[in-house]
């Protein structure tokens, strides 16, 4: 990514997405472009138009904190977007990273995944690579192309629109989350590679990415349509993995006593039967509980442990 243009691109995109009505402007007349004009943002933020234009053009890259606070208020940024604004205006000192790296999941976290027999759970990497899944999650996502990365799954797999009945909402959340983590690490060499792949394969991604929406992944209610049990209404929680910066543990739950809870029970039993058959056939395809037997850095990962950034 062109880090020199991040601040200007973000301000321009959010300015164009901010309506005059929401900013308290009335009788603004006809407009050839959406959103606020540059001079309107400058007036509302209490800065000169020339200064704001320099910000958007990348000729001024270090606005003061009061200016950033004013711009966040005028552009109606949520907490995640405001954090992103500060990240790109005042980037943290970053160590040079190697040209290639693999993200690994700790054995203790793998054991935790295996303890949830009726709860889909998995570990995501920084760019939403599926690094590890438990057997229930493996069954939940079975048969879906690109399931090794949730961004590729959503934007590059046509079946995603059936799997996610609320596809537009899901896709928007994924793009906004990618923008959020990109602000913390814009120099990662894999980010432009991923953005190019998604942009070349999905017009929807190009549209959503251009909006510069920002949203961290925390919790959400998600509808999923599974080919075996039908529609599920699930709540997911996201937890940061402290000993592996950038990794997140995702856990799905269903409302107690609901049809979705019953459906998860069916998927849990199906996962257990498959694990039992695999173990009976002598294949090393058990639950994540057995994965610590394979040392980190193995060349042939278990089917429940995917490492795509090698």
Q: Average the pLDDT over all residues and give the rounded result.
A: 84
What is the tally of helical segments?
13
Rg computed from alpha carbons, rounded to a whole number of angstroms: 22 Å
Q: Give the amount of beta strand, in percent.
A: 5-15%
Distance between the termini: 21 Å
| Order of SSEs | HHHHHHEEHHHHHHEEEH
Determine the fraction of residues in helical runs and give it as a percent range.
Answer: 40-55%
Main sheet attributes: strand count, strand direction, barrel closure: 5 strands, antiparallel
Give the strand tally.
Answer: 5
Low-confidence stretches: 288-303, 306-310
SSE class: alpha+beta
Enumerate the strands of the largest sheet in spatial order, edge to edge or round the barrel: 2-1-5-4-3
Shape: elongated
Q: Which descriptors would you attach to this protein?
A:
about 300 residues; alpha+beta; five-stranded antiparallel β-sheet; 13 helices; 5 strands; about 45% helix; disordered C terminus
